[in-house]
Amino acid sequence: MKKALLLTALLTGITVTGSACPFCNKEILKGIYDSQFYPNLLTMLSAFIVLAVIVVILVTIAAKNHRSRLAANPGVQILSPVPLTTASMVLGIGLGGFMDGIVLHQVLQVHEMLSNKIPATTYTGKSINMFWDGIFHFFCMLVVLAGIILMWKLLSGKGDIDRSGKLFGGGLLLGWGLFNIVEGLIDHQLLKLHNVIEFSANHNTGNFIFLGVSVMMLVIGYVLVTRKHQHR
Question: By three-state DSSP, how is residue 147 classified?
Fold first, then answer.
């Protein structure tokens, strides 16, 4: 338990004197820092790890395609869509996570992070879920910070970068859709941590609507970022 407390403090940057939740009662602390602490922490990370791999693959393909266009059009300067698409897609992933956590977890409270495993129907269950919602939001914050850094580097980059609004908006939608699909498949379908509407009679309805809307966002974002590229 002490190792778990220390790891939580390191992850969140909170100075603790025995706990990252100093006002929690013993039952809540026991529920958070039990034998499932590290598996739950890895679970929080799993979707973000998968998303990172997908982003790297997509950026690699986009960069390769851009080099092919340059080789096929010698003497023509083609603005690169890769930097802005990458930065906006990373921002979209982080903002999509925040929208999910803020709207569905906190405002509407139709589910919380581990609500299918630990029902949020009691004070203890609610508090444990709130802790893991916070860890989830912390990882979303790191992704948003990474997107901001990429955007800042883009602004100070070379002049052959495509900075169109369609690329920015398309990248945001692409990242948001990717987040929802990966999170939905991993957390809803595979690991069954929670459902879109936890207390509904049929969980599949909400889960599939969530995935359907996410696919639409992904398609719209893809269409926007793969439009005819600018020449200069």
Answer: helix
